[in-house]
Design brief:
Strand order of the largest sheet of chain B: 6-7-8-3-9-10-12-11
Order of helices and strands of chain B: EEEHEEHEHHHHHEHEHEEHHHEE
Oligomer: heterodimer
Distance between the termini of chain A: 23 Å
Radius of gyration of chain A: 25 Å
Strand content of chain B: 15-25%
Number of helices of chain B: 12
Order of helices and strands of chain A: HHHHHHHEEHHHHHH
Largest interface: A-B, 26 and 38 residues
Helix content of chain A: over 70%
Number of strands of chain B: 12
Structural class of chain B: alpha/beta
Distance between the termini of chain B: 39 Å
Helix content of chain B: 25-40%
């Protein structure tokens, strides 16, 4: 188990290094940081001094090594746009995005899995047909349109929920949470639905397809032949066997929710990392963009590792090195 | 045997599959009974309706298959018209089932101990600790070495033969009075088949469990069954004591089937074979379903379908045993 984790971490390193190289290359090829720092009016001597000060005259690999060294310590330099350390900016924005992504993922799982089980079991009921039609809407409507429609209905017409922002937040150390205030929870509802709807329908369709597959297997027939109650057959024997593909997709989608919450955050003016990123792109704020890129790579690598570990928890056939003979 | 009331009685069972092109009759007018402790072998070619008869008895016909006519009685009570929940309480508890392929019958994500324990706690008034104790006992009983340790193993950690032993333990653990064993050895290595059959036979005798043993292996039938039913195209062609059917089959089809068993005491160049193939369900010929392949066919066979008739030692669905039949 430990060896497996270590080997997975070593496999992840080249991925992270490649992404680091790309985000480092942005500095060199997208705009000239020296020109940006010096402003409109400077002499060649000033420029040379700054270049050697920043170490930009050193070979590429030395600069890259320095960049990696700093990145490992969470040091990504100053934002061009806001003149504040990038690490601070991201740390400020991360809780908003993570809370939104977490809520959306929980919503998608808590609603999507039962709907998938139901539609897999009762294929021809009118409720299943309704869920399937509804899921087509979820899969095919673009996120921004769903967000705008929700704002129109629940914020503009009905006036039940706020149309933008996070509401009031409470500081827990450096983490600012919206879960603990009523306005924070209210503000979370619409963006979480917008962000989670696609995932919800995806999970529902996946669980449905897997359930239909598993229900045809011999061990389900045998479980019925042993007279086990339906609840045990459906939610124990069947659902557990659908979990491996579901975990894979949910893991990847959770990464996607965190990384690409940009559209939802823009529509709802949600003060998260996605909004920070899109504003940074607008201002060519390269330090922020490059740090964001690395952070997202780290998120995906971490989630993949967790997914791999979950496989082991779910499927005993993958647990090698437990050989007790018998073959 | 004739004096004890039957444990299971199947009367005029008919199973239909409604399809777009009309209704297929998979089982037609099948009647037989099994006494307590008796082993009834059911043989026939693939598609003869053997497995489906078993599925109908345990109430797990695959939709859209349904029982269209007839009744199934367990201890004199009808079980073919029960609701799912009532029938569920009978499955496992009164009628156990063993499936063909032990590699796919066990849930790969649960330990064998958990699968045994959940079956017992579902049907018997025992707690988890007692269930675990009995699970170990059952594994020992079916011949799994170091049962106390293997209880926490997953199915993939067992070989095929060992897994079928676990399946047998699962079928028997709630102490049913009847086991429906659907080709329990077909998927196993030949060397393992005899062991598994011997185990099944011993356990059934010890526990007084009756068995419906579906197979196309005549050797298994000859060794295990008390009586045998030969099925052809959804009907019973012949039924009788195993010795009679194997040695002196009365129905031309069962005679042909027995003729295809290689004799051990003499060399033969070529085994007897039955020409042609069993008809598809959608194209069962008029009269006796076996008439196109039958070496002793006569006019009446092509017109009318014979019921089971008294053929001396056995009962056979063949006009040869109709005393009033006029041979053409």
């Amino acid at each position: 188990m430990f060896a497996f984790v270590v080997s997975r971490i070593f496999q992840a390193l080249p991925v992270l290094l490649a992404v680091a190289l790309i985000s480092f290359a942005m500095f060199a090829y997208v705009g000239d940081p020296v020109a940006i720092m010096l402003g409109q009016d400077y002499t060649q001597a000033q420029r040379d001094a700054l270049v050697s000060d920043l170490g930009l005259d050193k070979p590429f690999w030395v600069q890259f090594a320095t960049f990696i060294g700093n990145a490992v310590q969470g040091e990504f330099g100053l934002s061009y746009r806001l003149s504040r350390p990038v690490a601070d900016l991201i740390a400020e924005r991360a809780p908003a995005t993570l809370e939104l992504a977490f809520t959306a993922a929980v919503l998608a799982l808590a609603v999507g899995v039962p709907m998938g089980v139901y539609t897999g079991l009762y294929r021809n009921s009118w409720l299943s047909r309704f869920f399937l039609t509804f899921s087509l809407v979820g899969v095919s409507l673009p996120t921004f349109l769903i967000g705008i429609l929700l704002i129109l209905v629940f914020a503009v017409w009905l006036g039940w929920l706020p149309s933008f922002g996070r509401g009031d937040t409470v500081k827990l150390g450096w983490w600012s949470t919206g879960f603990l205030t009523w306005s924070g929870v209210k503000a979370l509802v619409l963006p979480a639905i917008t962000l989670g709807l696609f995932q919800l329908t995806l999970i529902m369709r996946l669980v449905r397809a897997e359930m239909m597959e598993v229900l045809r297997t011999d061990y389900i027939k045998f479980a019925r032949a042993r007279g086990l109650p339906n609840r045990a057959v459906h939610f124990g024997h069947a659902l557990k066997n659908t979990m491996v593909p579901v975990i894979t997709i949910v893991g990847l989608q959770l990464g996607a929710i965190i990384a690409f919450a940009i559209v939802t955050e823009t529509v709802f003016q949600w003060p998260g990392m996605g909004l920070l990123f899109i504003q940074s792109v607008g201002a060519a704020d390269i330090p922020v963009m490059s740090a964001y890129l690395l952070l997202i790579a780290l998120v995906f690598v971490t989630i993949n590792l967790i997914v791999d570990l979950l496989y082991y928890a779910v499927d005993p056939r993958l647990r090698i090195g437990r050989g007790k003979g018998g073959h | 045997m004739s004096n004890t009331p039957p444990l299971l009685e199947v009367r005029n069972l008919r199973v239909e599959f409604p399809t777009r092109r009309g209704t297929l009759v998979a089982i037609d007018d099948v009647s037989f009974s099994i006494s307590p402790g008796e082993v009834l072998g059911v043989v026939g070619e693939s598609g003869a309706g053997k497995s489906m008869t078993g599925a109908a008895i345990i109430g797990l016909l695959e939709p859209p298959g349904r029982i269209a006519r007839g009744e199934i009685l367990l201890n004199g009570k009808r079980i073919d018209n029960l609701r799912y929940e009532q029938m569920r309480r009978i499955r496992g508890r009164e009628i156990g089932a063993i499936f063909q392929d032990p590699l796919t019958t066990l849930n790969p994500l649960y330990t064998v101990g958990k699968q045994l324990a959940e079956t017992m706690t579902t049907h018997l008034p025992i707690g988890p600790a007692e269930a675990k104790r009995r699970a170990i006992e059952w594994l020992e009983l079916v011949g799994i070495p170091a049962a106390a340790q293997r209880i926490d193993s997953y199915p993939h950690e067992f070989s095929g033969g060992m897994r079928q032993r676990v399946v047998i333990a699962l079928a028997l653990c709630a102490e049913p009075k009847l086991i429906v064993a659907d080709e329990p050895t077909t998927a196993l290595d030949v060397s393992i088949q005899a062991q598994v059959i011997a185990l099944l036979k011993t356990l059934a005798r010890e526990k007084g469990t009756a068995m419906m043993l579906v197979t196309h292996d005549m050797g298994v039938i000859a060794e295990t069954a008390d009586r045998v039913a030969v099925m052809y195209a959804g009907r019973i062609a012949e039924i009788g004591p195993v010795r009679e059917v194997v040695k002196h089959a009365n129905h031309p089809y069962s005679a042909g089937l027995m003729g295809s068993i290689p004799p051990l005491d003499r060399r033969v160049e070529r085994l007897a074979q039955i020409d042609g193939a069993m008809p598809r369900l959608s194209a069962i010929p008029q009269g006796c379903a076996y008439n196109p392949r039958c070496p002793q066919v006569f006019d009446k066979c092509r017109e009318l379908r014979p019921d089971l008739l008294d053929a001396g030692t056995t009962r056979a669905a063949c006009w040869l045993y109709d005393t009033e039949a006029v041979r053409g």
